[in-house]
Amino acid sequence: MAARGPGRVSVLLPTYNERDNLPLVVWLLVRTFSDSGIDFEIIIIDDGSPDGTQEVAQQLEKIYGSDKILFLCPSGTAYIHGMKYATGDFIVIMDADLSHHVRLHVFYSATQKEGNFDIVSGTRYKGNGGVYGWDLKRKLISRGANFLTQVLLRPGASDLTGSFRLYRKEVLQKLMEKCVSKGYVFQMEMIVRARQLGFTVGEVPISFVDRVYGESKLGGNEIVSFLKGLLTLFATT
Amino acid sequence: MTKLAQWLCGLALLGSAWAALALAPPGLQPPAPLRQALLPLPVYLLVAFGCYSLATVGYRLATFNDCEEAAAELQEHIRAARDDLRRRGLRL
């Protein structure tokens, strides 16, 4: 598909059981993009959510038009599938659970133009970036894990596990070919490989508003799998 | 070169330099004060790194921003979004 106009942004939103949050995220994105005059489209990729997310996505497509909202069921990885349909020059990847404060992506586009970065990554650790809803223990784990990552991988970016990023489309395509991990280790691998391939990474402070932390505690399993992923990246990149 | 390979190379270089100087046979030993400082050096460096790590993580923990405004703003946005979407015909 040919890109439409310079600077169109495609937002990829993989969802699973986000019936309540999805319309809010979409509404916020539509409003923020419209207010700042950025051409956009939102691609919702739902992997068979049982809670009615798909119906909501279809309703949103009707309300806003399928020029702006596209709803897909993924075959294979959500991102790869979504990218096939994306018509923008830039791709934003973010969470659909309202944890990323949506108004901030506007800064992305601005930074994109200022520094001409290949990737703009949201960071919770620099500037006035931060979190809301985390207790001391959660913050300590986050900072400790990040410190370990910085020491071992020297990635040149302050926040590797945050998942609010904007990529140039061709950069994301190249990275998706090269990266082999899954989940948030995949997010880490993308930045590390991007630096290796000589792509430039800019950073923008973001607010991470955690509304689900109470329900999904960071358990021992998650920590172990993070360490495994980190060591794998350490040994293979 | 992977990060692991870089670390191993670096450690091998430093390790062999240290071993050559600190564990040299009697004929080739550097002067006594130097040897005394050199022998426990790896342990000193490890401890120093440990202290640096604790201090850094502690500092970063203490200065971790709490985004009160962002959370409050988000609540407002959610309210506005719900109202507008209802008007546009979305069944929540």
From TrEMBL, chain A:
Location of the Glycosyltransferase 2-like domain: 10-175
Subunit structure: Component of the dolichol-phosphate mannose (DPM) synthase complex.
Annotated keywords: Endoplasmic reticulum, Glycosyltransferase, Magnesium, Manganese, Metal-binding, Transferase
UniProt cross-references to Pfam families, sorted A to Z: Glycos_transf_2
Cellular localization per UniProt: Endoplasmic reticulum
Single biological process term from Gene Ontology: protein O-linked glycosylation via mannose
Catalytic activity: a di-trans,poly-cis-dolichyl phosphate + GDP-alpha-D-mannose = a di-trans,poly-cis-dolichyl beta-D-mannosyl phosphate + GDP
Protein name, entry field: Dolichol-phosphate mannosyltransferase subunit 1
Cofactor: Ca(2+); Mn(2+); Mg(2+)
Gene: Dpm1
Keyword Ribosomal protein applies: no
General function of this protein: Transfers mannose from GDP-mannose to dolichol monophosphate to form dolichol phosphate mannose (Dol-P-Man) which is the mannosyl donor in pathways leading to N-glycosylation, glycosyl phosphatidylinositol membrane anchoring, and O-mannosylation of proteins; catalytic subunit of the dolichol-phosphate mannose (DPM) synthase complex.
SUPFAM superfamilies reported for this sequence: Nucleotide-diphospho-sugar transferases
Primary location recorded for the protein, binned into one broad class: endoplasmic reticulum
E.C. numbers: 2.4.1.83
Keyword Repeat listed: no
UniProt similarity note: Belongs to the glycosyltransferase 2 family.
GO CC annotations on file: endoplasmic reticulum membrane
PANTHER family xrefs: DOLICHOL-PHOSPHATE MANNOSYLTRANSFERASE SUBUNIT 1
Pathway(s) where this gene product acts: Protein modification; protein glycosylation
Alphabetized GO MF terms: dolichyl-phosphate beta-D-mannosyltransferase activity; metal ion binding
From TrEMBL, chain B:
This protein's pathway: Protein modification; protein glycosylation
Subcellular location: Endoplasmic reticulum membrane
InterPro entries in alphabetical order: DPM3
GO terms under biological process: GPI anchor biosynthetic process
GO MF, one example: glycosyltransferase activity
Alphabetical UniProt keywords: Endoplasmic reticulum, Glycosyltransferase, Membrane, Signal, Transferase, Transmembrane, Transmembrane helix
Membrane-spanning parts: 43-62
Pfam families associated with the record: DPM3
Topological category with respect to the lipid bilayer: Multi-pass membrane protein
Main subcellular location: endoplasmic reticulum
Leader sequence segment: 1-19
Example of a GO cellular component annotation carried by this entry: dolichol-phosphate-mannose synthase complex
Protein family per UniProt: Belongs to the DPM3 family.
Function, as annotated: Stabilizer subunit of the dolichol-phosphate mannose (DPM) synthase complex; tethers catalytic subunit to the ER.
Quaternary organization: Component of the dolichol-phosphate mannose (DPM) synthase complex.
UniProt name for this protein: Dolichol-phosphate mannosyltransferase subunit 3
Gene that encodes it: Dpm3
